[in-house]
Amino acid sequence: MTDLMAKDLDLAIGFAARADAPLFTSGIVRQLLSAASGAVYGRDDFSSLGKVVRQLGGV
Amino acid sequence: MRVGFIGLGAMGLPMARHLVDARHDVTVTSRSRGPIDAAVAAGAIDGGTHDEVVRASEVTIVCVPGSSDVVDVLDAAMPALGAGKIVVDASTIDPDVERAQHERVTATGTRYLEAPLSGGTVGAEQGTLTLMVGGDAGVLAAARPALEPFAGTIVHVGGPGSGHIVKLCNQLLYAAQMLATAEATTMAAKAGVDLRKLHQVITHSTGDCNAIRTASCSRVWCPTVRRRTTGDRAS
Fold it and tell me: Is the ipTM here above 0.85?
C-alpha cells in the first residue's frame, strides 16, 4: 500500500465534516501517517504506521 | 466490446490486461510511456490522447489518482463524448466532485458510472476486485462485460456519489484496523509476548480482521521474521 491511504482518509474526513458524521479513528490515523511520512518511514502506510506506534510505545 | 482504459497505474495496468485476456478490443492511454508499452505488449492498442481513446471505445474506464486528475481526463475527453458511449470512473476522489462529473458527462449524452475499487494491487492482478458502483442500474448492466474481467464482486450501491461513500467507509474501517493492529502488537511486544502466538490467537478470536491477516509477519507483526510465501500481501 502506498500513501493512497492518507489521501483516502483526507477524503473521508472532509466528507464526514460536511455530512456531520463523527470520525475519530480516521483523524488519529491521518495524523500518525503524517508523523510517519515526516520520519521518512517509506511509502508503505501499514508498516510505517506500525513503526510510529511502536516508537511511541518505546519498542 | 471496444473498451478504453485511461490510467495504467499499479491498478490500471493489470486491469487492462484482464480486459485484453477477456478478448475485448482495448485502447489505452496513460501519463507515462512505460505502462502504455507494457499494455501494448499484452495486446492493447495505444490510443494516443484521451479523446481518441474514448472515440475508439464503447466503454471507457478511468483509473487515476485524484479529483483534479479525473476532471482533467474528462476535460480532455469532452470532444469525444456523446450518445452511445459509457464512461466508468474507477478512481477514488471527492464524492461531491464525482457527482459533478456524473452530471456534466450525462449532459453530453454519454452514460456515466462511478466504480471505486477495493482489493489492492493483488486484487487487480488476480482479477478479484470489488467494485462499489454508483449510477443507473441499466448503465451498469450495459457496462458489465467491461468490468467483470477484473472484478470478483460488483455491487450496485445506489445513485451518483454513493459508490464513493461506501469506498470511504471501507477505507476508514481499514485504517481503524491498521491502528488497532499496531497498538496490539506494540503492547504485546512490550510485554515480551511472541507475536506469532499473538497472531495465531487473534486470527481465531473476535479481534480477527483483514488488517491482522494481511499484515501477518511480514510487516507490523513480525518485522524481523522471514516473510512467509503465502497470505502475506496487503490489499
Answer: yes
